[in-house]
Amino acid sequence: MWSMWSVVLSAVVSVCSQIIPEPTRPVDLWNPFGPPSTPRPKNQGLMSNEVAVRLSIGDLIGKKLLLENLPWTPNQDPSEQMPPQRSHFDPNPLPARNNVTIYVFLGVPYAEPPVSQRRLKPPQLIRELPSKPYMAFQFGATCAQDVENRPQIFVNDPYPFTVNEDCLYLNIFTPDVSKVSGMSYPVIVFFHGGNFQTGSANEWPAHGLASRGVVVVTVNYRVGALGFMSLGDSSSGNYGLMDQRLALQWVRDHITTFGGDPQAVTIVGHDAGAVSVGMHMLSPMSKGLFRSAAAMSGAEVSYHSYIGKPALAFNNTVKLGRYLGCTQSIAFDVWNCILSRSTNDIVRATTDIPIEYNRYLFLPTVDGVNIPGNPLWILNNAPTGLSAIPSSVPLLVGMNAQDGTEVCYPAQFLRTVQGGR
Prior knowledge:
Rossmann fold; signal; COesterase domain-containing protein
């Protein structure tokens, strides 16, 4: 029996390996299985591969990394090189050996932990780093989610990150933190995808972009019920979008220390992250926090990406409550009852409850504040003056070359097991 599965699995890997290219970046630069950091003894100076920065909320220590043999340098783009027809043939060409130093700060908290009394509430900006100095060497926890429900290229690949409700962390990749150079780099703030149900900033390392002269910030935000559960009013729900906005405020306040220009921030998102980008452009609450935007493989006008009817959001919360044994007749009592349940119970219930409308129970909800109205209605009526787009900034929209590979492997696996049907 096991030999049959081995043959099947080998066949599937062979098929998908032709579709999914092997990563070309050095794996050890973004491997999350690195050794855990240990508390630094008092009065111990910086190691040769470490760098310290001072923020208003505390001191931060990150890593200095040397990227070797890159096919580019920060000051030279391949499109700007000599055209082939104008260059001379070199019988013994030497490979490019460009070495670039970047600086990485992982697992930096940007908000107070959304646990206990802060659970299912708007995030609060962090006032002080939890340790002095704060060692930003390892990824922070991924927000609570059903990791078995996430897209998987390799079916037996374990989830490499810690999952916890205390998850509001960001990662910073920067070409320079020196004040001597006087450089101020453009900034990308990236929101991951996952249908607002799964995903993590830790899955999107940005060493390559940093080597090109861009400061990149990847952001964790709450997902699923813990990020978007709502009673259909303006005072509940959309916590994941609020997390993203708070991260943008953190970037505005602190990115100068990391060599970034707070006036040159571009928000970029993939999948649900792209939907988030559109939502921030339409939200007056996010105005002034970014200069431009890019949305990859997602749009805020997709009907399955948000909940437009407050009654539906309300009913979904009540449905979750019933599933968890919260049978109170008053909505706020149901809400408080859900708050008393464990993380695992809430996540599992969200996954198990049958869906009658839309793709998921909990999504961004039109609340009149964070999302002022139906996105399609806002866009259609903006030219007539009936609605407004608060952040009318340059927007790049597109899709990615390998979109769909996350479902290719499971689909091919099932077809092979079922005899090619």
